[in-house]
């Protein structure tokens, strides 16, 4: 893992006020008009620094995967900016967008559905090189063979089809496809959640080796906070489309500030009984992103809810060095 002093450097990627809303049609479809919006990502801001891994964690449906896909323009944003290499990704088109996609690649959650079942693996891995007009045909094949070796695949795998591989091998293929164009940023969208636990650790270790070798920067999205802790320099915690806490990994685990983060960490099994956290049980169901509660989105389940939480959304603030939280428990009037 790379431990970069982020505060002294310019961010490689600067996401500001990102929103992604999905319209919900009425029972008559287009004729019924839009009856509301699913606010999948709601005013999320963060910075990603060169050489680091920023982990994004949260329950299923919190918007973390949508956020990753929106940054890469696989789905179009509703609002916000994503500043990279002196420009806004959301304003790019044509050649500019293609150049950005060479620098920013994605590893998907389900490696099988992201591979073309009719193409041999060699063809699949050469395709990004052909799209970006990198090298001659012979050079592309050599590059693919080199990357396959780096991710732990055999050279004869070049001629096989996706169904001939195990889940772990397919994820290695997904990694190879992301790395073949030599990107700067890799967005890992739950890359190990579909794998057995023993295979998960192999892929995580491989990601760390590749990061050191290729000077990669990762945005690592997962719902397992133990996996995120192992690989991340910093962690962002998401709940219902909002980033409720951001902090360096050790700071977050030593002193989680947001009640939701405290509940997440209290559920992590720890072998030593003396080091276990007091379990925080969250009551109630997660509200629908189609009908978010007023004020703080977490107030309907928060064990420390106050009146102000029900009417006013909390503001993101830096409570400790590089440790940000959006919660009324840490309001300026209490400091």
Automatic annotation (TrEMBL):
Keywords, in A-Z order: ATP-binding, Nucleotide-binding, Transport
GO MF, any single term: ATP binding
Domain ABC transporter: 13-265
Alphabetized PROSITE patterns for the sequence: ABC_TRANSPORTER_1, ABC_TRANSPORTER_2
Domain of life the protein comes from: Bacteria
GO BP annotations listed: peptide transport; transmembrane transport
Glycoprotein recorded as keyword: no
A Pfam family it matches: oligo_HPY
Family annotation (PANTHER family): ABC TRANSPORTER, ATP-BINDING PROTEIN, TRANSPORT ATP-BINDING PROTEIN
Family: Belongs to the ABC transporter superfamily.
Name of the protein described by the UniProt record: Peptide ABC transporter ATP-binding protein
Organism: Brevibacillus agri
């Amino acid at each position: 893992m790379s431990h970069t002093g982020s505060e002294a450097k310019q961010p490689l990627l600067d996401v500001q006020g990102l929103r992604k809303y999905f319209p919900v049609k009425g029972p008559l479809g287009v004729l019924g008009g839009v009856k509301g919006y699913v606010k999948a990502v709601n005013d999320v801001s963060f910075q990603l620094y060169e050489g680091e891994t920023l982990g994004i964690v949260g329950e299923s449906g919190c918007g973390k995967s949508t956020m990753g896909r929106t940054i890469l323009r696989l789905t179009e944003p509703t609002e916000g900016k994503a500043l990279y290499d002196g420009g806004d990704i959301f304003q790019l088109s044509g050649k500019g967008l293609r150049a950005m996609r060479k620098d920013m690649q994605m590893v998907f959650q389900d490696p099988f559905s992201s591979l073309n079942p009719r193409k041999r693996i060699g063809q699949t891995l050469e395709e990004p090189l052909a799209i970006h007009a990198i090298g001659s045909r012979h050079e592309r094949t050599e590059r693919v063979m080199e990357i396959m070796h780096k991710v732990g695949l055999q050279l004869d795998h070049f001629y096989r089809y996706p169904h001939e591989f195990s889940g772990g091998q397919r994820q290695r293929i997904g990694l190879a496809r992301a790395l073949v164009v030599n990107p700067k940023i890799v967005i890992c969208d739950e890359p190990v959640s579909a794998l057995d636990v023993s295979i998960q650790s192999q892929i995580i270790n491989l990601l760390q080796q590749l990061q050191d070798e290729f000077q990669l920067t990762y945005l690592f999205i997962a719902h397992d906070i133990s996996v995120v802790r192992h690989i991340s320099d910093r962690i962002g915690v998401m709940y219902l489309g909002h980033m409720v806490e951001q902090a360096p990994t050790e700071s977050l685990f030593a002193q989680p500030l947001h009640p939701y983060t405290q509940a997440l960490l209290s559920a992590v099994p720890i072998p030593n009984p003396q080091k276990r956290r007091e379990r925080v049980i969250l009551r109630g169901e997660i509200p629908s992103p189609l009908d978010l509660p007023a004020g703080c989105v977490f107030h309907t389940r928060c064990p420390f809810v106050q009146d102000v939480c029900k009417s006013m959304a909390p503001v993101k603030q830096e409570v400790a060095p590089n440790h940000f939280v959006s919660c009324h428990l840490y309001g300026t009037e209490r400091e």
